[in-house]
Amino acid sequence: MFRSSLVALLLAGLSAHAWAAAPAASAAIATGLIAHRAVYDLELKDASDRSGIASMYGRMVYEFDGSYCQGFTTNFRFVTQIDTGDSVRVSDQQTKTFENLKDRKFTFDTKSFTDDQLDKEVNGAAENQANGVKVDLKQPASRELQLGESRFPTEHMLDVIQNAKEGKRFFEARVFDGSDDGDKSLVTTTIVGKQETPAAEEADAGNAGAFSKTAFWPVTIAYFNENAKSDSLPVYRMSFKLYENGITRDLTMDYGDFVLTGKLAKLELLDHKAEVCK
């Protein structure tokens, strides 16, 4: 349901070829990412009659750790209580990913539960090769796939930050994050606003701790099916405020039929020892 592009966050300006040509610059940007655990309170902002949702709220926990040398691990949990008017159910999505930026490899494992019952598990591994992304999918069915060249979530986050720092306000990318059934990439368009300083009335700015007064970029990423027509609506759209270190807050997640907001409730910085790549 929720994409890992916070992460996940997904090339004109810095293409995959440019990444391969400038590993030192990429490594430098990656070392600026901070290991952290962020907790977000979720609320329903809007829902159409077609959604069948009367009310919805929940909590999201996002944990990011690692380094350019060791690789980056993301643990993510997204729990919501959904009231349809006739019944109430609890949805629980648990995702763990590992991304090796140097070798451009990515592993993913997502379990989705409804009322504590496992609905679906999706897991596998992907690698960016010369002719595109090779996916070795284990669940929900064992198979190998060949997809077009794509960015992985942390790569895409770094692309967003790099473009923001260079003042490039719009760019596109194909992104693979292992979501849904783990068998496709999505085309993304990213819009980056001018850097701003948090306003006093922003409710969750104070929960950013040491970064409560640090400048951020407003970012919106829209995700489209790969073969969608040029005038098609996105399958998902996410807006958030992004700090240079990879921390995000003030989320808006638009699924078309309903919209959720996510306010930063707690931010914890994690201890991580720096290292020199061998």
Automatic annotation (TrEMBL):
Classification of source organism: Bacteria, Pseudomonadati, Pseudomonadota, Alphaproteobacteria, Hyphomicrobiales
Official protein name in the record: ATP-binding protein
Organism: Rhizobium aethiopicum
Record keywords: Signal
Superkingdom of origin: Bacteria
Signal sequence annotation: 1-20
Pfam families found in the cross-reference section: EipB_like (PF08904)
Entry keyword Signal: yes
